Amino acid sequence: MKKCVFAGTFDPPTNGHKTIVENCLEIFDEVVVALLVNRDKEPLFTLEERTRLLTKLFNRHKNVRVISFDGAVVDLLEKENTPFYVRGVRNTIDFEYENANWFANKKLKKDIITLYIPSPQEGLHISSSLVRNSYAFNKDFKELIPVEIYGDIQKLLKDKNV
Q1: Could you give the C-alpha distances from 52 to 49, 63, 84, in angstroms and in order?
Q2: What are the strands, taking DSSP E only, across the chain?
Q3: Residue 142: HSE in the Cβ half-sphere, 13 Å Cα cutoff
Q4: pLDDT at 118 over 80
């Protein structure tokens, strides 16, 4: 059975994240969507809120598992017993960032296999930051968010008084 890990902060999950997981389901038997605790970021949504959003988004897929992890990606891959690490890339900036991380991870885990999944052209502009900024400036963000969790995100943002 082939399993991959797709990790991120998902603050909030977007259509881009959903597309990557759907691509992974075409390749792998199991997809682990891992909410990584990133000490360099202060997420708007709590870990629990993001976990609920991702779980709701992927609950119809029996072979998608949502977890949280506080540690290095290489340790998560070891824990999940897989060398396959999936990253989404929208542009050359994402690629350069991810490639630098790959070189670092490869030194720590020799058998790591990182797969870059490019964003479709219509999703190149989608980011969690764009969703948060769109809401903050009272702009529509419906096309950026999966329909399954759009209402949940709207409510969370309203409750946070963003």
Answers
A1: 5, 17, 25
A2: 3-8, 30-36, 64-69, 84-89, 113-118
A3: 2
A4: yes
